[in-house]
Amino acid sequence: MKVTAFVLFAALACALLAAPKREDALPPLPDKEGFAGMFAGVSDGKLIAAGGANFPNKKPWEGGTKKWYDTIFVLDRPDGKWQAEGKLPRKLGYGVSVQLETGVLCAGGSDAQKHYPDCFLLERADGKVTTRKLPALPKSCAYAGGARVGDAVFIAGGIESPSSTRALKTFWSLDLKKLAAGWKELEAWPGAGAFCRWWERTRASSIYSVARNSPRARTASPCGSIFETRMLTRPARGGRNSRTYRALRSQRQARLPSSEASCCW
Description:
The chain has 265 residues and is mainly beta. It has a domain at 28-133: 6 Propeller (Neuraminidase). Helix content is 6%, strand content 37%. Strands 15, 16, 17, 18 and 19 form a five-stranded antiparallel β-sheet that branches. The protein has a four-stranded antiparallel β-sheet with strand order 1-2-5-6, with no helix packed on it. Strands 7-8-9-10 form a four-stranded antiparallel β-sheet, with no helix packed on it. A hairpin with a 7-residue loop joins strand 13 and strand 14 (183-185).
């Protein structure tokens, strides 16, 4: 068994080393460390990456200090170069990015001192990126998950403050056709709150997510859960064309092995 496992591992390693270089890789951002927790999306046919954080001097395990940024980078073509085109309202990272028709909806996030409820739209036109203020979230949060279904944006979970010891169990929606109404609080999923490393994809009227449960789970023990939250669209009583969204109580849940439950730096 050990010999077989070693042979399989060696074969996999050789295959990976021999794999051809991807020709569709985009140019790196103009920073030797790169950035974590950036807002990203497309506007005016250009790729936008903004904000984020890194450890410019020392790695976190070496006692380094995290630094936040407000620069907005734009890439006009896959073989082009990233250009700085303006600033975010503040240094900010680890928020939610949701792609809309004209730009990127950015919600929540954090800096070195606190977490924020702010929402804004990043739009590019005439060679300039602008920010348009949108209704704020019901409370401050960072490390949340978000996705769009139809004319609604959904945001779930996150962490309310840097000192929080529990993840949020919050589920909000924003009707893009009724922005003035602001964010609506919906019934959350069963079980504990969740944050970090969300993966979402929409199919019809569903959102699938992967998340961690505890902001303090940094041990070798399993520290994540896989769960599914479905959004159900149905005619509301007020009219045949209107829709309401709610989270179903059905849930799939399984523990992640520690090797897959990565931490959010």
